[in-house]
Amino acid sequence: MNEQQEIKKILEHFFDGKEAHASFDQVVKGVKKKNYNSKIEGIPYTLWQLLEHIRLTQKDIIAYIEDPNYVEKNWPDDYWPKEQKDIDDKMWQESVDSYKQDLKKLKEIMHKSDLFEKLGNEKKHRLIRELFLVQVHTSYHLGEMVTLRRLLNKW
């Protein structure tokens, strides 16, 4: 196994939640409809908003990786969903499924690509940076989801 293959194996392990933190599946499993939009005083987002933020950000990073003419989105409006009161099981599951599909796509890109390839017109960032960015960003917000679920007594 060469060094890139070893790094890819480590990254895949992290993406799959096989290290010292809860996996995506563990965090989203068992969340009930009544808690998708539950607000806790002092917390500016809901479980659904966190889930959507993770999904939207991962999707955007994939677009950055794939499109040499990528146009940066507006922060924070394009990365954080507005609060919605009518989130149902179908919408929750669509967000979960979309995240998983995109993660699968990201892993496919990772396995067929050079980790040190420079991306975009500016050739400013490397693929490995974007992969770590997705992993760290997702883990951070999954931790927030766990904390929010604990505050809701649903963890």
Descriptive tags:
Four Helix Bundle (Hemerythrin (Met), subunit A); 155 residues; mainly alpha; 2 strands; globular
Task: Summarize the SSE layout with pairings.
Blueprint: H1 3-15, H2 24-28, H3 33-36, H4 47-66, H5 89-112, E1 118-119, E2 125-126, H6 127-151
Antiparallel strand pairs: 1-2
Helix pairs in contact: 1-5, 4-5, 4-6
Brief summary of the model shown:
Helices cover 59% and strands 3% of the residues.
Please give a structural write-up.
The chain is mainly alpha-helical and 155 residues long. The protein has one domain: Four Helix Bundle (Hemerythrin (Met), subunit A). It has six helices and two strands, in the order H-H-H-H-H-E-E-H.
Shape summary: globular
CATH top level? Answer: Mainly Alpha
* CA gyration radius, whole angstroms: 16 Å
User: Which topology does CATH recognise?
Assistant: Four Helix Bundle (Hemerythrin (Met), subunit A)
Number of helices: 6
Helix content range: 55-70%
For the largest sheet, list the strands in their spatial order.
1-2
What is the end-to-end distance? 39 Å
Overall mean confidence score, pLDDT: 95
Low-confidence stretches: none
CATH architecture: Up-down Bundle
Which superfamily, in CATH terms, is the homologous superfamily? dinb family like domain
Which structural class fits the helix and strand makeup?
mainly alpha
How is the main sheet built?
A: 2 strands, antiparallel
DSSP strand (E) fraction?
under 5%
In N-to-C order, the SSE pattern is: HHHHHEEH
